[in-house]
Amino acid sequence: MSSDDKVTPLRPKRPCPECGKPSARETYPFCSVRCKDIDLNRWLKGVYVIPGRDDEDETDNDPPK
Known about the structure:
Elements (H helix, E strand, L loop, with lengths): L32 H13 L20
């Protein structure tokens, strides 16, 4: 093999979003199970919220007549 036949990584290397350490392959994008669990706990507690649109009407969920 020549040096031009290098394998390109599937994911770019990036730091852990929780602590900034290099991410691990097993827990990507986190560095450890601990940081992964911290992030999951934040989602479960509702810290991260994806806002809905203001123009959504509650009548859209009514069954057709």
